[in-house]
Design a protein that fits this description.
133 residues; 37% helix
Length: 133
């Protein structure tokens, strides 16, 4: 991260120095050409980010005082019970176009349950713990 920041600052400083040494007219022409290439690169990166989304979930370094539930792309209802685990979702195939992207809980530490839920076509119900008789 530090090297990337230092490199970016040095590159911008070098570009600024180059443009100052070119003079106003030539610097204006150079900046027009460079802006074309940076705009095209930004558009390409936007398309890559839009269409190449990962479909993974992660709880990275999670340490929970309860349970961890990761649910994604379910067409029916989901019920999560505090005691006894998760009720199995319907066996229907995942609906296309639901969910997407990446979920993460990097470095998470919770005193209770951790739920990552995305792309559910029905309802999601998280039931509180029941008292044992």
């Amino acid at each position: 991260m530090v090297f990337t920041t230092v490199g970016a600052v040095l590159a911008m400083g070098g570009l600024a120095t180059f443009l100052v040494l070119q003079g106003l007219d030539a610097a204006d022409k150079w900046s027009s050409v460079l802006s074309l290439f940076f705009t095209a690169a930004g558009f390409g990166l936007t398309l890559v980010g839009l269409f190449a989304r990962g479909s993974r979930q992660s709880a990275d370094h999670a340490a929970t005082g309860g349970s961890l539930h990761q649910v994604r792309n379910v067409t029916g209802d989901v019920v999560i019970r505090a005691v006894g685990g998760t009720v199995a979702p319907p066996t229907a195939a995942p609906a296309e176009g639901q969910g997407g992207g990446t979920q993460s809980a990097h470095g998470a530490r919770t005193a209770g349950d951790l739920h990552q839920i995305d792309g559910v076509g029905g309802s999601v119900r998280v039931e509180p713990p029941t008292a044992n008789p």
